[in-house]
Amino acid sequence: MFKVILSGATGAMGRVLAARAKDFDIEVAAGLDRVADPAFPFPIYTNPEGCREEADAVIDFSHPSFL
After folding, report:
1. Region of residue 25 (left: phi > 0; alpha: psi -120 to 50; beta: else)
2. Backbone φ/ψ region at 10: left (φ over 0), alpha (ψ -120 to 50), beta
3. Residues in CB range of 60: below 8 A, 6 or more apart
4. How does pLDDT run along the chain (67 residues), one tens digit per residue?
5. Are the C-beta atoms of 32 and 7 separated by less than 8 Å?
6. Exposed (0-12), middle (13-18) or buried (19+): which is 9, by Cβ within 10 Å?
7. What is the pTM of this model?
């Protein structure tokens, strides 16, 4: 399984990918966004420096103002 960190996890595209990830053999290890939402099945960090999960890639759907 391919592990990713999803930047912009609580936005529209982030929610779509999070919901469909397993259909494509993807595991979302963690998310990054301005607001942490406890409803997601993976941790969401508001500061990228706090993320300690390991992943194969980062998928970025964040807004340019995030960082």
Report:
1. left
2. alpha
3. 7, 8
4. 999 999 999 999 999 999 999 999 999 999 999 988 899 999 999 999 999 999 999 999 998 887 6
5. yes
6. buried
7. 0.89
